[in-house]
Task: structure prediction
Amino acid sequence: MRLAQNILNTILYSNLFISGCAAGLVYETYLLSGIPASLRLAAIVFFGTMFVYNIDGLLPYKFNQEELVSQRTQWVRQNRLLLQTIAMASALCAITLYYTALFELNFWFILHLLVVAGLYSVPFIPEQDRYIPLRDVPLLKVFMIAYVWTAITVQLPLMEAAHDLFSPENLFLFLRRFLFIFSLTLVFDIRDVNKDQLTGTITFPVKWGVERTKKLALLLLLLFVLSSPIGATWWQALGLALSGVAAAALIRKTHANRSQYFFLIAADGMMLVQVLLVWLFS
Result:
């Protein structure tokens, strides 16, 4: 039992699971767009996600935070060398795959995503007598996360296949993915509401309360379900709609005192549920 929990913690806290979710959403974009899947690009996204998330978790200032230290934070503190090794190995794999690929991706597009992801947790914005990262700008965090995830999992596959990013079908694909990721990101804002209140970070749950935030997330999922037939087959639309219903059921059961496993497996896992449903109905 102890061994199983250690393995589970390693998979979750080393960001292996969330990186698999990112690669899965890339594959889903190929399915919805009718593009032959590029396993190489999915692998680049997988390793890139591993690198960014592990580097973010290793930032020095996070080890000085004492407000409501979570089980995950304790694990990260005890396994810094492992995460550093994984981060460096992931960066090496992503760079090697990219520079040995036959396809080309827009350098400036990738650079702006790396800049946004890099500045997400790095304090650089002056605020009174201190500096804050982008994530602490009031209400900005969820928009940033949803945009970066959507750009990586939708626009990169389309760009790799030389598809028009601004065609109506692809714009709706972008919007639909953004709505879904945004709603899931609000779940994690609910998880962090107590810590954010202590640190003075203004998020949707802090400003408007948990129940109103859940209603917003459900509204976004409704828009996601209503847009599911656009640019997809009816069977794929059914898979997308079912994933929206599953995410709505999860949001209704979300509260700040749920375990870390609820958020890291069930909430993040909604992305893989959607990938699996779209694959089955394709």
User: Anything to note?
Assistant: The mean pLDDT is 91. The domain at 2-281 is CATH 1.10.600 (Farnesyl Diphosphate Synthase). The CA atoms of residues 51 and 87 lie 4 Å apart. The first strand starts at residue 125 and ends at 127.
